[in-house]
Design brief:
About 35% of the residues are buried. Strands 3-2-1-4-5-6 form a 6-stranded parallel sheet, sandwiched between helices. The protein contains 10 helices and 6 strands. The protein is α/β, with parallel strands linked by helices and about 240 residues long. It is globular. The two termini are about 20 Å apart. α3 crosses α4. α6 links the parallel β2 and β3. About 50% of the residues lie in helices and about 10% in strands.
């Protein structure tokens, strides 16, 4: 029986591409670029070196430069290091203005009365807390149920960060359902820890490994309908897709 639903933050509780696109339009109002493609590329480059930035092998500034220089270069725009860091600064400004959809807010309000809720998110502590505060997520998710990789020295998809949540909430792996958009970090991480997992694949990514989500949804509407059924206990069990 599912007793806890734990969420990723970026591109799960809100649309991460919005601040990225707004930052680009602010800095380069006359330029045209495939911003959806550049955004997805920046995510891939960021994920590829995140472990190094967490361990200190690569500074966060170097990670920002790496991801934006490479992502924009892939789409025909060159940036020097100073320009990439300036883009990060404007990007962060827009991330402070993020919000959940009304549907997600109403759903979390209803869900918080039925289930234990939590968050596991990768990133620096201060940066991720800024997003969580902007989203007002702690109206429904207790602060001590929020696990940020930068605070614990371990990041998704490593099993240990999921185990920390189990220990805190005093539940067994099969009693958790994790919801996230990243196949590698969220699905491989959750399934590797023995959790149930819903892949919120709203950007139509392809799996890059052998882990199988229990369910895959492609829109917020599908996600909320599925989670409503999970919370109501209508599913006898989770199944692999």
């Amino acid at each position: 029986m599912i007793k806890a639903i734990v969420f990723d933050v970026d591109d799960t509780l809100y649309d991460l591409s919005g601040p990225f696109k707004e930052a680009f339009h602010e800095l380069y109002p006359l330029e045209e670029l495939d911003l959806e493609g550049a955004f997805l590329a920046s995510r891939r480059y960021s994920d590829s070196v995140y472990a190094k930035s967490l361990s200190g092998e690569m500074s966060m500034e170097d990670m920002y430069v790496y991801r934006f220089q490479n992502a924009f270069h892939d789409y025909g725009k060159n940036m020097d290091a100073q320009e990439a860091l300036h883009f990060q600064e404007i990007y962060e400004k827009h991330q402070h203005m993020i919000h959940m959809t009304e549907a997600m807010q109403e759903f979390l309000k209803e869900l918080s009365d039925k289930m234990v809720l939590g968050i596991i998110t990768n990133g620096p502590s201060g940066h991720q807390w800024d997003k969580i505060r902007a989203l007002e997520a702690t109206r429904w998710i207790p602060k001590d149920h929020v696990f940020i990789s930068g605070e614990h020295g371990v990041a998704k998809p490593e099993r240990r960060i999921f185990e920390l949540v189990q220990e805190k909430l005093k539940l067994q792996p099969q009693e958790f359902c994790y919801v996230g958009d990243s196949y590698e970090n969220d699905i491989e991480g959750a399934k590797g820890a023995g959790w149930n997992a819903i892949w919120y694949n709203h950007r139509n990514h392809r799996p890059t490994g052998s882990a199988e989500p229990d369910y895959m949804v492609r829109s917020e509407k599908e996600l909320l309908e599925l989670l409503s059924q999970v919370a109501s206990g209508k599913y006898l069990s989770f199944r692999r897709m």
